[in-house]
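Table 4 source record.
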Amino acid sequence: LVKNNIDLFVCSFNPAATQRFEEELLQKYLLHNENAEQREIIRIPMVATNQRHQKHIIFVLDQSGSMSNSWGGVVAAYNKCIAQRRQNQNESDLVSVIQFDGCATVTVSMTAISQAPSQLGFRGGGTCFSPAAEHARQVAMSCPATHAPLVVFMSDGCAGDASQAANTFSQLNNHIQGMSGNELELHVIAFGGGASTSQLQMIAGSSHNGKLHVSADTAQLSDIFVEIAGGGNVGDVLEAEIGKRISEAVSDKLAL
């Protein structure tokens, strides 16, 4: 590469995890005895270098009776989200799962992402949001200071206690703001045609960092879960950065 004057790019999904490797590689390349022009390796972080990478991902999943035919797809989407985080070198992440119908249960509690179960049971029942929100609040408040909570709340229905659930998430957001100065990362997914987007939007609005997603089917749900994990725009970022470098190189040549 040095002999042929080829530009070398290092693209990192998690700059914090690969920093030492990158610095050693850059130094060896710069000091190589055939690198007379002192060409440097170009580093392209795929995410912001100041981003807090360690996440505590809290899945809050609707397992009411109406979800029975789609539950396999929900579990597949959950697994794809975890796989994407691991592919992006986020092995320090923690995972919790809260499953709800008329009540709510914590089925996975602050488990290392590498140990997160691939299968989730199903019960079926009615739909209440508030118990699930309260469990999510308690789990998130137990999150270690090294991790930022990320809540993924998914439902295909509506409930009579949506305002209470929104208030609970608002309390959690206030707590996180007081502790870290940041807003709660809250992703709320309206699944299928029967979901109340107005109620779920109200829950998403509990945080300025909240977002409502709409999913028509489990295939779209998987795409949303992967996007939340940080895998939706990697190709676009890489293409833009390489295009920028080529444009700069052409400009330099023309200037000569």
